[in-house]
C-alpha cells in the first residue's frame, strides 16, 4: 500500500524565493485500487505548476482546500476555465473545503472573468463542505478537518488525510494551536507551515516556536512549507523543509 506526495508548490503568499503557491499532488495504490490524482490546496499558481510538471489538470479527480486565501484556493477559477475551454473535460470533479467554498469560488471567478460562474459545465462538479472534526469519505480518502487560527472569512483547517493505512496531515496556515497536536497524532507525515524563523507574527508559525513544540507532535516525518525569506536563508534547520518538484513516500 502506498501514498505518494509530490510538491508542486510550497511557497508563501509572496512567492518568497520564487516558489509557487501551495499545491500538493497525492496519488497511491492499495492492491487492486489506485487513488485518482488529488490536489491538496490549489493556490493561484497551481495551473502553471501542474503544466510545468507535465500533469494534465483534467486528470485531477479531487481537490481538498484548507482555507479560502488566494495562495491556497485561488487557482480554482483558472483550473475550471482550463477544464471548460481547453481540456473539454467530461469526467467528474470534487472540491472539498470550508463552508462558503462554493460562494467564494463564484466571487473569485466573477472578479477574474465576469460571467464565467454562470457557464454550463460539461462535467459534474461536486462541492463538499468540511466541518470541524467530522471525518468524511471522498473518492477513496478519509478526510478530517481541524479548525486552526488563521482568519480567512471562513473556518481555516488543518486537514488529516488517510488512505491505504497511511496518514498525511497538513496544517494549512495557522499560528500555534493545540488542534495541531490532534491533527498530527500518529500521522506518517506532517506538513507544517513555518512562515518565519523567530518572528512572532499572528496567524502564522515560526521555526523557533515550532522546534520547541516538536516533542508534542506525535508524528513520523515532518516537512516545513510556506517558508518566508528569513527561513529560506537558513542552512542550520533541524526540521526538513519541502522541496518543489520532489516526490515523497508517505
> What's the helix count?
7
Rounded to an integer in angstroms, the radius of gyration calculated over CA atoms is 17 Å
Helix proportion range? 10-25%
**Mean pLDDT over the residues:** 97
Q: Which consecutive residue ranges, at least 5 long each, have pLDDT under 50? A: none
Q: How is the largest sheet built, in terms of strand order?
A: 6-5-4-3-2-1-13
Shape: globular
Distance between the termini: 10 Å
Profile the largest sheet: 7 strands, mixed
| Total strands | 13
Order of helix and strand elements from N to C terminus: EEEHEHHEHEEEEEHEHEHE
What structural class is derived from the secondary structure elements? alpha/beta
Q: Would you kindly provide a written description of the structure presented here, covering whatever features stand out?
A:
The chain is an alpha/beta fold and 250 residues long. The protein has seven helices and 13 strands. The chain has helices spanning 46-52, 70-73, 76-86, 101-112, 179-184, 207-213, 229-232, and strands spanning 2-9, 23-30, 33-40, 62-64, 93-97, 125-129, 135-138, 141-147, 157-163, 166-170, 189-193, 221-225, 247-249. It has a seven-stranded mixed sheet. Strands 7-8-9-10-11-12 form a six-stranded mixed sheet. The mean pLDDT is 97.
Topology at a glance:
Elements: E1 2-9, E2 23-30, E3 33-40, H1 46-52, E4 62-64, H2 70-73, H3 76-86, E5 93-97, H4 101-112, E6 125-129, E7 135-138, E8 141-147, E9 157-163, E10 166-170, H5 179-184, E11 189-193, H6 207-213, E12 221-225, H7 229-232, E13 247-249
Parallel strand pairs: 3-4, 4-5, 5-6, 10-11, 11-12
Antiparallel strand pairs: 1-2, 1-13, 2-3, 7-8, 8-9, 9-10
Amino acid at each position: 500500500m502506498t501514498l505518494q506526495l509530490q510538491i508542486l508548490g510550497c511557497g508563501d503568499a509572496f512567492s518568497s524565493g520564487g516558489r509557487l503557491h501551495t499545491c500538493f499532488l497525492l496519488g497511491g495504490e492499495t492492491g487492486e485500487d489506485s487513488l485518482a490524482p488529488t490536489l491538496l490546496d490549489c493556490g493561484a499558481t497551481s495551473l502553471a505548476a501542474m503544466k510545468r510538471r507535465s500533469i494534465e489538470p483534467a486528470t485531477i479527480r479531487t481537490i481538498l482546500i484548507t482555507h479560502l486565501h488566494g495562495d491556497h484556493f485561488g487557482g480554482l477559477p483558472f483550473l475550471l476555465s482550463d477544464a471548460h475551454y481547453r481540456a473539454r473535460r467530461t469526467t467528474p470533479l470534487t472540491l472539498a473545503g470550508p463552508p462558503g467554498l462554493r460562494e467564494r469560488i463564484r466571487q473569485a471567478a466573477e472578479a477574474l472573468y465576469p460571467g464565467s460562474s454562470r457557464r454550463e459545465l460539461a462535467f459534474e462538479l461536486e462541492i463538499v463542505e468540511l466541518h470541524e472534526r467530522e471525518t468524511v469519505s471522498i473518492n477513496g480518502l478519509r478526510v478530517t478537518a481541524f479548525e486552526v487560527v488563521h482568519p480567512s472569512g471562513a473556518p481555516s483547517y488543518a486537514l488529516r488525510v488517510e488512505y491505504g493505512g497511511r496518514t498525511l496531515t497538513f496544517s494549512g496556515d495557522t499560528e500555534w494551536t493545540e488542534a495541531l497536536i490532534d491533527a498530527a497524532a500518529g500521522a506518517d507525515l506532517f506538513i507544517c507551515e513555518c512562515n518565519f524563523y523567530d518572528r512572532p507574527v499572528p496567524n502564522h508559525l515560526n521555526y523557533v516556536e515550532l522546534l520547541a513544540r516538536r516533542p508534542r507532535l506525535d508524528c513520523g516525518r515532518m516537512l516545513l512549507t510556506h517558508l518566508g525569506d528569513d527561513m529560506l536563508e537558513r542552512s542550520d534547520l533541524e526540521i526538513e523543509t519541502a522541496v518543489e518538484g520532489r516526490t515523497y513516500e508517505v
